[in-house]
Specification:
By secondary structure, this protein is an alpha+beta fold. The chain folds into two domains: 155 residues, Probable inorganic polyphosphate/atp-NAD kinase, domain 1 (Rossmann fold), CATH 3.40.50.10330; 143 residues, Probable inorganic polyphosphate/atp-NAD kinase, domain 2 (Tumour Suppressor Smad4, Sandwich). Helix content is 18%, strand content 31%. The longest helix has 14 residues. The chain starts with 19 loop residues before the first strand and ends with a helix. One of its GO terms (molecular function) is NAD+ kinase activity. One of its GO terms (biological process) is NADP+ biosynthetic process. Its EC number is 2.7.1.23.
């Protein structure tokens, strides 16, 4: 029997990395380290105090969700004594405003996106619907995000591992603090627009120090493209202040590992497990045969600007929303956010991901070869 292998610590991915190299060399301690890497097997949910409030995100205008939504609300309010938060437009749906909801409305709090700050009111989040509901939940929390439990109703999504059939036992497990979580890193994106004389009055009111800055948290990807123009987009890509390359083509996708299975994979990128701390850069139809997608470390700062000789402006969108035009002099700065989305796993971070690859993309699903009989082997 050989000696036991290195033990895995609670906070590191695999065996503890050594920090000394030979008799004299060692790693300089870095007080500005961006993140430590979790061992996926050790990521478990725990509560400091029992959870009391839950935010339900429901896909709007989907009648197939009404019955599950009602069952979930009744279960949470009546059996679990939870306070339920939801958007006002969800409860105002005429299909919901019937008798069965009157009894529980006293335990329901409503809010309006972009008006009411619920970031300190919600202990955890339940999403009903497709992957878009989790992206939407992420957008409501620009800083710390409560744990998210996502149910697929219909087709299985990448971000929605739970089946609604057993929701009562599954939600109970989460409330009791018995669940695996995966920390999905987000991108912190700053869009800085130069003040222009011909800007509208509304734009001018948002200007500070001559520039207008907007900040976003992005779970899937930032897409910079050529918009309605027929010319190639032409944008400069900087990494930690150095010009890396100019992207000539339809555009570029900067994605998280979570976003690697969204637009990026359709544009020819590889798929990265969400536990890998990285940022992926994928060109969209580049006008170059040698521009392959690249993966850079999570700590770097990327900056995208329109090239001086670009024939047209570019457009940026963040997780498919907030689409806006980028002119010469504007910039988009992207780095890994300090605020990941803690997403509750059905089994565990690795199994869930491979299950979703098989179910969503039919990854490496093929008919098996028959084995050879002994007679055939002779030929």
């Amino acid at each position: 029997s050989g000696s036991p292998g290195p033990t895995r610590t609670q906070s590191l991915h695999g065996p503890s990395p050594v920090t000394t190299f030979g008799p004299k060399a060692c790693m300089l301690k870095n007080p500005k380290a961006v993140m430590h890497i979790q061992d996926p097997a050790s990521q478990r949910l725990t509560w400091n105090k029992p959870p009391k409030s839950v935010l339900i995100i429901k896909k709007i205008r989907d009648t197939s969700l009404l019955q599950p939504f009602k069952e979930l609300c009744i279960f949470l309010t009546q059996q679990k004594n939870m306070i339920v938060y939801m958007e006002r437009k969800v409860i105002e749906d005429p299909a919901i405003a019937n008798e069965s909801f009157v009894s529980i409305k006293k335990n329901i709090c409503t809010f309006r996106e972009d008006y009411d700050d619920i970031s300190n009111c919600v202990d955890f989040i339940i999403c009903l619907g497709g992957d878009g509901t989790l992206l939407y939940a992420s957008s409501l929390f620009q800083e710390s995000v409560p744990p998210v439990m996502a149910f697929h109703l219909g087709s299985l999504g990448f971000l929605t591992p739970f089946n609604f059939d057993t929701f009562q036992s599954q939600v109970t497990q989460v409330i009791e603090g018995n669940a695996a979580i995966i920390l999905r890193s987000r991108l912190e994106v700053k869009v800085v627009k130069e003040y222009r004389e011909n800007g509208s009055v509304e734009e001018m009111s948002l200007v500070t120090n001559g520039n207008k800055t907007m900040q976003y948290q992005v779970l899937n990807e930032v897409v910079v493209d050529r918009g309605p123009s027929s010319y190639l987009s032409n944008v400069d890509l900087f990494l930690d202040g150095h010009l890396i390359t100019t992207v000539q083509g339809d555009g570029v996708i900067v994605s998280t590992p979570t976003g690697s299975t969204a637009y990026a994979v359709a544009a020819g990128a590889t798929m990265i497990h969400p536990n890998v701390p990285a940022i992926m850069i994928t060109p969209i139809c580049p006008h170059s045969l040698s521009f392959r997608p690249i993966v850079v470390p999570a700590g770097v700062e990327l900056k995208i600007m329109l090239s001086r000789d670009a024939r047209n402006t570019a457009w940026v969108s963040l997780d498919g929303r907030k689409r806006q035009e980028i002119a010469y002099g504007d910039s988009i700065t992207i780095t890994t956010s300090c605020f990941p989305v803690p997403s509750i796993c059905f089994r565990d971070p690795v199994n869930d991901w491979f299950e979703s690859l098989a179910q969503c993309l039919h990854w490496n699903v093929r008919k098996k070869q028959d084995h050879l009989s002994s007679e055939e082997e002779e030929f």
